[in-house]
Amino acid sequence: MVVHIVLFKFKEENKQPNMIQTKQMLEDLMGAVPSLTSIDVGLNFSKEERAMDMSIITTFASKEGLEAYAVHPEHLKVVDFIKEVVEYSKVVDYEKA
Questions:
Q1: Integer Cα distance of 19 and 28 in angstroms
Q2: Strand 86-95 relative to strand 2-10: parallel, antiparallel, unpaired?
Q3: 6, 52, 62, 82, 85 from 89: Cα distances, Å
Q4: How far apart (Å, rounded) are the C-alpha atoms in residues 40 and 76?
Q5: Which of 33, 10, 6, 30 is CA-nearest to residue 20?
Q6: Where are any strands of DSSP class E within the chain?
Q7: What is the pTM of this model?
Q8: pLDDT tens digits for 5-61?
Q9: Which of 53, 68, 86 is nearest to 4 (CA)?
Q10: Which CATH class is domain 2-95?
Q11: Which residue ranges make up each domain of the chain?
């Protein structure tokens, strides 16, 4: 199994509505992207300086599944929106036994 984690820091302008819309768009990918086996989207409540605003944890059966997700048209629509509303993001990908 492959785990793909992304952390997002949103722009301040329209932050809450953009976070809610992003969360919904990401959750809607379940069932729309065949290689996506699970997705968990979390909105942060921590007030720490180092805190990010949102996390996603997705799983795939293989690296090829992650690669298929990365270029899937429905995922790319979400990516286009995210690029408009996010300052930056961080990613971790790993294989889990």
A1: 14
A2: antiparallel
A3: 7, 9, 23, 10, 11
A4: 18
A5: 10
A6: 2-10, 36-43, 54-60, 86-95
A7: 0.94
A8: 999 999 999 999 999 999 999 999 999 999 999 999 999 999 999 999 999 999 999
A9: 68
A10: alpha beta
A11: 2-95
